[in-house]
Design goal:
heterodimer, A: alpha+beta, Ubiquitin-like (UB roll), FAD/NAD(P)-binding domain, 7 domains, 7-stranded mixed sheet, 6-stranded mixed sheet, 50 strands, B: mainly beta, Folate-binding fold, 4-stranded antiparallel sheet, 1 helix, SoxD (chain B)
């Protein structure tokens, strides 16, 4: 055990048991998995991506490149989880990754022996030939050998949520700068959101032992939090990572609501995805310590110095008792002090000849670490003097990288500051100010002052008048730094997670990959799940050196969201599976379900497809019965899904004349006309009916599929093209339940449910009227027919739909579904979805004469293009023949089945119980001339090759006498 | 992105639908075919300020003419097509 007897922010009264690779351990509440592993003396926690080298824990937070584990099991299994951010809970189960058969003995570690062969660009150079081998052989092999954790294969049992929020000031990061900023902004009355990725607020104050106002810094943190928690306009979001800065002050964040619990309680989501719109943003995300690349710097036990003192102070976990601190500046000396105070034997290796003496430890000035020893963990450190020091932990302090990612997500390029040896934020997105260590102000006093000023300014910019904070007193720690990025030698790792070494980068430069973006892709530097948080600056420095340029000149690669990996669930929220989008049900849905209906998705709608009766053995039985019932007696169909639009106003007729290809202004009140609309490019947009309810009021119907599109089209035509027209357009789709009643007995049935006169004289074909129905309902009757039978559509308020359906049933009509509807319309040759496919003209559909020649309308001009009036275009015809399937291609009999011979395709097909044969509709070149001839029907996809007879598209009652009867 | 709707205030782009470039004025009914071709098919694609049509479909349903910089997404303004 390396847990210190006292200290740390863990709760020693609350032990937490967990397993790692099947063995049981114990930690405490407040631990992360990483701190608990260290406290149990475990240093080896994973194998590297390419060489399978043993790896331990490097860092303290989300920047961790090495210690990736598979967390939890079953549907909750989560690969590539950083042990440094996984909060310990009772019963936590974790496994190491990318090793076989075990972490301590990994056969793939043999890759390490071939290290020189697996250098930069290895895949590109080696697996070139033959190219077909890439998918079949090389990639599967590489994927097995090189890799990360395994994703869960069972469905995720947890719930996720989306949240939208607005605020005056979003503060990212709750370290000293972020807390000061939040307090300064909140006191002005501004609405503040403070987001912190850690589960505890305080940032580096949790990991360092510092004083504010002469007392422990954590006292100040507690005092600030107490005030913030009592301000109603402040939202504190711990466990929340702001992962992306998007346009116009929009930020994406993910809150790990229940990741710290064994399972979320039933009322709690696992994670919550936030979209935050902020007037102003203070980015106070701190900084992350960078490594120094030297041979063997990846051995378990080699750690970030700042992390080492964080484990001591925050978790009471001592990473080693024999410590070497390799520091390029004063910051590492704080770690040396912490180690010494915790009882470790400490040697400081400082490349600065002027390195200060430190009480209670040995300081080797002007020296460097050039190697490490130890099989599965560090046992000794080699210095350039030749001296070897026995050690079980090597703390490395290479300087600090400001966490400026969000400042660069909108394209702002970081700027190299040679004096601080760090990239600083360039031009952040509008509304963002960067404060504290993220802006390169590394000392505590500077962070507090910077944060307070930024928070106040942000609140003022957002319209709140605040007053400056009384600045707390804190020290300016010594921050001397001599930039040191690497020490010469082999196997000096830059990107731990992708196994990129100093040699790889030098090789890339020699081979001409001098641009930072090219070198990145060639070596894969910074392309792992940690996105090079610890690796990039060291890599750039090495590339700069190898290409003889400065770091500023070399520049950085682009920063893009997300800052840390984001669970897809947090982005999807509740919109998964059946809830992916809202389901639309008609007013008759429940009624239909009670009467045996099954349902089919039609866009977002669920429509009754047929109404099965006891004894029917399959869907065809039901559909055939329904079709015959309509043709022989009467049936009714729920057509509430049709788009319904009211167009009202003095200029309503003028607008409809403009959007319909045919004329509507000549329609008399009380009459209905079939109409087609074109797109401006001359193709058919949609068809439907237009009923004139009054001189200035029209009721327009659209197809189900195009309802939203036609509504938008009408609004466009009015607002953009004809804004001078005095007209209002309203979608009334949901305001009416609409039922089609069809069949030779339809009038008799109708007469039993309405008090209106429905005689042919009072309600002729293509007429409409307001009607009273039995039971006191009010509604409308439209005499129109889609089936070719005597037919009506009845519109009633949705709440009256079931009563109407009950009465129609009692009057002798039977319900029919969309399948029967489809058969009836194919038998009648009406255009439907297969023909209104966006590529057909009015002429193709046999409707060419509907195009008005006496008025302007949308699509008129381009419908006259030569290609759109070419007589050879495929036109609507009927087909009769066994085996017809929608999508089959049409060829001249005997013609080879090649694209050049293609004459068209089948757009709809069904079994016609009236004709007792399979019929279809098709778009066929020179189709009208082919009526009566035979055509080859070729369906390569489903293996059909047969013949059909070309027919006129109207199979039933071509004269239309039934409709008018 | 945020679109400043003149009727509803600044709203998230997810509430809107866009058809891209604002078309030029619709030709007169008797305009030659070439004018119709240009009107329907040809659009500028500037790197910079760009007039676009957006409809606030999940709000007031008004069609808006939005001036947006294609390089930075900065929205210079939005006005209703029908005023």
């Amino acid at each position: 055990m390396t847990r210190l007897a006292t200290g740390g922010l863990i709760d020693r009264m609350q032990p937490r048991r967990f397993t790692f690779d099947g063995r049981g351990y114990q930690g405490y509440a407040g631990d992360t998995l990483a701190s608990a592993l260290l406290a149990n003396g475990l240093r080896l926690v994973g194998r590297s991506f390419k060489y399978h080298r043993p790896r331990g824990i490097w860092g303290l937070g989300s920047e961790e490149p090495n210690a990736l584990v598979e967390l939890r099991a079953g549907g909750r299994q989560e690969p590539n989880t950083r042990a440094t951010t996984a909060e310990l809970f009772e019963g936590l189960v974790a496994h190491s990754q990318n090793r076989w058969p075990s972490l301590r003995f990994d056969v793939m570690a043999v890759n390490g022996l071939f290290g020189p062969l697996l250098s930069a660009g290895f895949y590109y150079k080696t697996f070139m030939w033959p190219s077909s081998f890439w998918e079949k052989v090389y990639e599967p092999l590489i994927r097995r050998a090189a890799g990360l954790g395994r994703a869960a294969t069972a469905p995720d049992p947890d719930r996720y949520e989306r949240m939208h929020a607005h605020c005056d000031v979003l503060v990212v990061g709750a370290g000293p700068a972020g807390l000061a900023a939040a307090l300064a902004a909140a006191r002005s009355g501004a609405r503040v959101i403070l987001a912190e990725e850690d589960f505890a607020l305080g940032g580096r104050l949790l990991a360092d032992r510092q004083e504010i106002n002469g007392a422990p810094a954590l006292d100040w943190v507690a005092w600030v939090l107490a005030e913030l928690q009592n301000l109603p306009e402040v939202t504190l979001l711990p466990r929340t990572t702001v992962f992306g800065a998007f346009d116009h002050g929009t930020y994406g964040a993910v809150q790990r609501v229940a990741d710290h619990l064994p399972e979320p309680p039933p009322d709690m989501p696992r994670q919550r995805g936030w979209t935050i719109v902020a007037k102003r943003v203070v980015l106070a995300a701190g900084a992350v310590e960078r490594p120094i690349a030297f041979p063997g710097n990846d051995r378990p036990g080699v750690m970030s110095a700042a992390a080492v003192r964080g484990y001591i102070h925050r978790y009471g976990a001592l990473p080693g008792r024999h410590a070497v601190v390799f520091t390029a500046g004063d910051d590492g000396l704080r770690t040396a002090t912490a180690l010494r105070d915790a009882g470790a034997e400490v040697t400081v290796v400082d490349p600065r000849p002027e390195a200060p003496a430190m009480p209670g430890m040995r300081v080797v000035a002007g020296a460097r670490v050039v190697g490490t020893r130890g099989r599965l963990g560090l046992s000794a450190v080699q210095l350039d003097s030749g001296e070897r020091i026995a050690a079980d932990v090597l703390a490395v302090a290479g300087g600090w990288n400001p966490t400026l990612h969000l400042s660069a997500h909108q394209g702002g390029r970081p700027v190299w500051d040679a004096a601080q040896a760090a990239f600083l934020p360039g031009t952040p997105p509008p509304g963002m100010v960067v404060a504290g260590a993220a802006a390169g102000r590394f000392t505590l006093a500077a962070c507090l002052a910077d944060g307070a000023a930024a928070g106040l300014q942000a609140a003022r910019d957002a319209g709140h008048d605040g007053r400056p904070l009384d600045l707390p007193q804190a020290e300016d720690e010594p921050a001397g730094l001599r930039a040191l990025y690497h020490v010469p030698g082999r196997k000096a790792f830059v990107d731990f997670q992708h196994d990129v070494t100093v040699d790889d980068i030098a090789l890339a430069a020699r081979e001409g990959f001098r641009s930072v973006e090219h070198a990145k892709r060639y070596t894969t530097l910074g392309m792992a799940t940690d996105q090079g948080r610890t690796a990039n600056v060291v890599g750039l420095a090495i590339l700069a050196e190898a290409t003889g340029r400065g770091i500023a000149e070399t520049g950085t690669t682009m920063f893009r969201p997300p800052y840390t990996p984001v669970t897809i669930g947090a982005l999807a929220g509740a919109q998964t599976g059946r809830d992916f989008r809202p389901v639309r049900r008609t007013p008759l849905h429940a009624w239909s379900a009670r009467h045996g209906a099954s349902f089919v998705d039609s866009g977002a709608w669920q429509r009754a497809e047929w109404y099965a009766r006891p004894g029917e053995t399959g869907w065809r039985d039901s559909v055939d019965r329904e079709v015959l019932q309509v043709r022989r007696a009467a049936g009714f169909c729920d057509v509430s899904t049709l788009g319904k639009i009211e167009v009202v106003g003095p200029d309503a007729a003028a607008l409809l004349d403009f959007v319909y290809a045919n004329t509507m202004s000549t329609l008399k009140p009380g009459r209905i006309r079939y109409g087609i609309m074109l797109r401006e490019d001359g193709f058919v947009l949609d068809d439907g009916t237009c009923a004139r309810l009054a001189k200035d009021r029209f009721f327009v119907t659209t197809t189900t599929a195009n309802a939203a599109r036609v509504m938008q089209h009408l609004e466009y035509a009015h607002q953009v093209l004809r804004p001078e027209l005095d007209v209002a357009i309203l979608s009334v789709t949901e305001a009416w339940a609409q039922i089609a009643l069809a069949g030779p007995q339809a009038r008799d049935v109708l007469a039993q449910v309405t008090q209106a006169d429905v005689s042919n004289a009072a309600l002729p074909h293509m007429a409409c009227l307001d009607a009273a129905f039995v039971g006191g309902l009010r509604g409308r009757l439209y005499r129109i027919s889609f089936s070719g039978e005597l037919a009506y559509e009845i519109g009633v308020p949705p709440e009256a739909a079931e009563a109407l359906a009950d009465r129609l049933l009692a009057a002798g009509a039977v319900p029919y579904g969309t399948e029967a509807l489809g058969v009836l319309r194919i038998e009648k040759g009406h255009a439907g979805g297969g023909e209104l496919n966006g590529q057909t003209t009015a002429g193709d559909l046999g409707l060419g004469r509907m195009l008005s020649t006496t008025k302007d309308f949308i699509g008129r001009a381009l419908a006259q293009r030569p290609a759109l009036v070419d007589p050879a275009r495929p036109v609507l015809v009927g087909l009769r023949g066994a085996g017809l399937r929608t999508g089959a291609h049409l060829l001249a009999p005997g013609a080879a089945a090649v694209t050049e011979n293609d004459l068209g395709h089948v757009t709809a097909a069904c079994w016609s119980p009236n004709l007792q044969q399979t019929i279809g509709l098709a778009l066929l070149a020179e189709g009208r001339d082919r009526i009566g001839t035979r055509i080859r029907v070729f369906d390569a996809l489903r293996g059909h090759d047969g013949e059909a007879e070309v027919a006129a598209p109207v199979f039933i009652d071509p004269e239309g006498t039934r409709t008018r009867g | 992105m945020r679109i400043p709707c003149p009727f509803c205030g600044e709203r998230d782009a997810a509430e809107f639908l866009t058809i891209g470039s604002a078309p030029p004025p619709r030709p007169a009914a008797d305009a030659p075919m070439a004018a119709w071709h240009d009107y329907v098919h040809l659009r500028d694609n500037p790197a910079g300020l760009h007039a676009e049509l957006w409809q606030h479909i999940h709000g007031c349903r008004q069609w808006l003419r939005v001036m947006r910089d294609t390089r930075t997404h900065v929205v210079a303004g939005a006005e209703a097509c029908r005023r």
